[in-house]
Design brief:
six-stranded parallel β-sheet; binds guanine; Rossmann fold; single chain; three-stranded parallel β-sheet; globular; 290 residues; alpha/beta
C-alpha cells in the first residue's frame, strides 16, 4: 500500500507556481489576484478561506477576502459580484459556499463571469469541461486527477466507481475520468444504486464523495484498488483543542491494507482542491495579461 500524499504534492505544485509568478513580478508585472467573498461566520467556511489565503501567500499571489454578514441581501451580493466582474485588477474570485438560505446559490454562481469563475462552478465552465474544451476545471476533480497522474496510477481502461453525484465532485469528476487521455470506464453511484457493494467491489479506482464518515468498508474494496477519499465530515472529538476531527468517507484502518494506493484524511484530496484553485487563478491571470 502506498499513501498518496496530497499535502506534499500540493506543496510541490505551489512551489512550481511561485517560481513562475516570481518571474512575472521580476519583469515588473503585477501578481495574480484572487478574491474570496465570505458570507456569515460558518466555521468550515472560515477555515477553507483562511487556507486559500495561505495558499495564495505560498504562490506569491495577492489575495483579498471580502466579508459580508449573514443577513446580506441577494441583491447586495449580486452588485458586489458585478463590481468584481468588471475589476481589471481581479483575475478570479470565488463565493465561498454554503450561503445563507435566503440567497439563491445558483443565481449567485451564474452571476460570476465565466472567465473569472476560478471555482469552475458556472454552467459555462461545467459544460465546457464535459465536452473537453478549455475551461476552469472544478477544483476537487482536477486535484484528484492531478494526484492520479503524479502517482502514475493507471486509468486507461480501468473501472472508476464514484460514490456521490454532487455538482461539485461526482458529476464533474465523472466527465474528467472518461475524457480522452484518462480513458477510464466510469460508474457513478448514489443513494438509489442497487447492489452498491458489488459495484464498488468491481472498482480499480474507487472514489468516495458522499459525505458519510467511514461509509466505505473493507468488504466493498477489491484487492489492489486505488481508493480516493473526498469526505471531510467534522466529528466531535473531546481530545482535540478544536473539539472535532475531520473524518473521511473511508474506513481507512481496515481498507488501507487492501489498496495499491489510498489518500488519507486529512492530507489527501483537501490540499489538492486548494492547489487547483491556485492553478485556475494563474490560468485566469495569464489569459487576462496576454
Ligand atoms: N464550499 C466547499 N467547497 C467549496 C469550494 O471548493 N468552493 C467554494 N466556493 N465553496 C466551497
Amino acid at each position: 500500500m502506498e499513501l498518496i500524499d496530497g499535502k506534499a504534492t500540493s506543496a510541490k505544485i505551489k512551489a512550481e507556481i511561485a517560481e513562475q509568478v516570481a518571474r512575472f513580478t521580476a519583469e515588473g508585472k503585477r501578481a495574480p489576484h484572487l478574491v474570496a467573498i465570505l458570507v456569515g461566520h460558518d466555521g468550515g467556511s472560515e477555515t477553507y478561506v483562511a487556507n486559500k489565503v495561505k495558499a495564495c501567500e505560498a504562490c506569491g499571489f495577492k489575495s483579498t477576502v471580502i466579508r459580508r454578514e449573514a443577513d446580506v441581501t441577494e441583491d447586495e451580493l449580486l452588485r458586489l459580484i458585478d463590481e468584481l466582474n468588471r475589476d481589471k485588477n481581479v483575475d478570479g474570485f470565488i463565493v465561498q459556499l454554503p450561503l445563507p438560505r435566503h440567497i439563491d446559490e445558483q443565481r449567485v454562481t451564474e452571476a460570476i463571469l465565466p472567465s473569472k469563475d476560478v471555482d469552475g462552478f458556472h454552467p459555462v465552465n461545467v459544460g465546457r469541461q464535459s465536452i473537453g474544451l478549455p475551461c476552469f476545471h472544478s477544483a476537487t476533480p482536477a486535484g484528484i486527477v492531478e494526484l492520479l497522474k503524479r502517482y502514475n496510477v493507471p486509468t486507461r481502461g480501468k473501472n472508476c466507481v464514484i460514490i456521490g453525484r454532487s455538482n461539485i465532485v461526482g458529476k464533474p469528476l465523472a466527465a474528467l475520468m472518461m475524457q480522452k487521455g484518462i480513458d477510464a470506464t466510469v460508474t457513478v453511484c448514489h443513494s438509489a444504486t442497487d447492489n452498491l457493494k458489488e459495484v464498488c467491489h468491481n472498482a480499480d479506482i474507487l472514489v468516495a464523495a458522499l459525505g458519510r464518515p467511514e461509509f466505505v468498508t473493507a468488504d466493498m474494496v477489491k484487492d489492489g484498488a486505488t481508493v480516493i477519499d473526498v469526505g471531510t465530515t467534522r466529528v466531535p472529538d473531546a481530545t482535540r483543542k478544536s473539539g472535532f476531527r475531520l473524518c473521511g468517507d473511508v474506513d481507512f484502518k481496515n481498507v488501507s491494507p487492501k489498496c495499491s494506493f489510498i489518500t488519507p484524511v486529512p492530507g489527501g484530496v483537501g490540499p489538492m482542491t486548494i492547489v487547483s484553485l491556485m492553478q485556475n487563478t494563474l490560468q485566469a491571470y495569464l489569459s487576462n495579461n496576454k
